[in-house]
């Protein structure tokens, strides 16, 4: 059996909760053979602690475990599917690697936190019809587009990050003043209820929460990631500079397995969709209809530079890191 251990954080929401804890361990199994491209002798088995938000972005990791890509590299994954704290966990040494919102990690790097990107996470689609991230409003809202968000209350899952800087840019392009937008931080599962209660005027969501809310009657007024840059790389796997320097061979093994997993998921989107129910309890109708993201095999430098520029332009960061500083 594939070797994976999972520590599950709490998620609540309409049509989406985390699946019950499951695990299968290869504690007594022999070390796996080296993968193609590694040394001919068996690789040393190791357990890695990984942290990320339990959303469709990470489907390739679960597929990679199922297909044996991590086992080929001698890796057992101890996964903490937590709602927050990925950067802090890596810095504290709780996690060896984590995946998080690219803009959030740029902000952390600008504050002197020595993180390094090692592999791409998820990327937005290249058309509005298939885009998985969107700004939604109540079905009867008068808001129709970017300019209408001027002066409105907008919920995002994290302040000063990829949602707000991309929304601000589109409002600016539409001739509005993004400084008048009132942002509030709210978990994805709670955004639909906040719209229903009139607590916010608009909310930024990703799948599966976009599909959940559309089925509940909300309407989409903006595909902010796609509209800023089709194919925008919005999440990355990272570690600390110190860990990478001290464990270069482990980093290489992890990156090989992640890239192989990403390539497999991108080439087999229906398998990526099906794997969601192995780590999430999700309404079958939502699972069948949600929009898939893309899983690239390389870190897109242009996406990172664009996000650096947007964050710096918004005044969110003042000591901007370079792309070279960020990518290992």
How would you characterize the overall build of this protein?
This protein has 14 helices and 13 strands. It is an alpha/beta fold and 328 residues long. A six-stranded mixed sheet has the order 1-4-3-5-12-6, sandwiched between helices. α1 crosses α10. The radius of gyration is 20 Å and the shape is globular. It folds into two domains: 4-123 and 233-326, Periplasmic binding protein-like II (D-Maltodextrin-Binding Protein, domain 2); 128-228, D-Maltodextrin-Binding Protein, domain 2 (3-Layer(aba) Sandwich). β8, α5 (162-173) and β9 form a beta-alpha-beta unit. Helices cover 36% and strands 19% of the residues.
Output the keywords:
2 domains, D-Maltodextrin-Binding Protein, domain 2, single chain, globular, 328 residues, alpha/beta, 5-stranded mixed β-sheet, 13 strands, 19% strand
**CATH topology name of the largest domain:** D-Maltodextrin-Binding Protein, domain 2
Q: What share of the residues lie within helices?
A: 25-40%
Low-confidence stretches: 1-40
Please provide the ordered H/E string of secondary-structure elements: EEEHHEHEHEEEHEHEHEHEHHHEHHH
List the helices and strands and how they pair.
Layout: E1 4-8, E2 16-18, E3 46-52, H1 59-67, H2 69-72, E4 75-81, H3 86-92, E5 97-101, H4 102-110, E6 115-120, E7 134-137, E8 153-156, H5 162-173, E9 182-185, H6 191-196, E10 202-205, H7 209-215, E11 219-222, H8 224-228, E12 235-240, H9 241-246, H10 248-267, H11 269-279, E13 280-282, H12 284-289, H13 301-313, H14 323-326
Parallel strand pairs: 1-4, 3-4, 3-5, 8-9, 8-10
Antiparallel strand pairs: 2-13, 5-12, 6-12, 7-10, 7-11
Helix pairs in contact: 1-10, 1-11, 4-13, 10-11
